[in-house]
Amino acid sequence: MSIQRKNFYFNIVINTVILGKQVAKLVGQERILILIRNAFQKIDDDYELANSQAQIAKKIAKRLRLKLPYDIRQLYCKKCKQFIVPGFNCRVRIGRSKIKALRITCLLCNNVYRKLL
Ligand SMILES: [Zn+2]
C-alpha cells in the first residue's frame, strides 16, 4: 500500500473518530460531489485522472457506507466498474423491442445492460 493511499484511509479514520459519524458522512458527501465535478471537467484532457478521481469518490462512499445518488451511480460500468460518461466512452440507446428500455453500452468492456423504462 502506498503512502498516499495509507494517508487517504488514515484521514477518513481520523475524521470518524474526532468528528463523529454523522459529520464524517456530511464531509464525505461533499468530497464525493467535488471529486465527481472535477472528473467531469478533466475527462476530455486526461481520462486516467478523471477515472481515478471517480474511483476515489466510490471508495469514500464505500468506507462511510453512503449510498451514491442515482445519477452518480449511473456513471460507473456495472461490469468493469470504470467511470463512463455518455458520449465519451459509453453509448445510450432507446431499445426498439416491445420492452422499452435504455441500452447502455460500455465502450471499454463492451458490456450492455438495460434500464427498464
Ligand atoms: Zn465496462
Name its key features:
117 residues; alpha+beta; Single alpha-helices involved in coiled-coils or other helix-helix interfaces; 3-stranded antiparallel beta sheet; 51% helix; binds zinc ion
Notes on the protein architecture:
With 117 residues, the chain is an alpha+beta fold. It folds into 2 domains: 1-75, Up-down Bundle (Single alpha-helices involved in coiled-coils or other helix-helix interfaces); 77-117, no CATH class. The protein has 4 helices and 3 strands; from the N terminus they run ααααβββ. Strands 1-2-3 form a 3-stranded antiparallel beta sheet, with no helix packed on it. Helix 2 packs antiparallel against helix 3 (47-63). The relative contact order is 0.11. The structure holds zinc ion. Zinc ion binds at residues 77, 79-80, 82, 106, 108-109, 111. Zinc ion binds next to loops.
Q: What is the secondary structure topology, with strand pairs?
A:
Elements: H1 3-19, H2 21-42, H3 47-63, H4 70-73, E1 90-94, E2 101-106, E3 112-116
Antiparallel strand pairs: 1-2, 2-3
Overall body shape: elongated
Q: Within the largest sheet, what's the order of strands?
A: 1-2-3
| Mean model confidence by pLDDT | 87
The computed structural class is alpha+beta
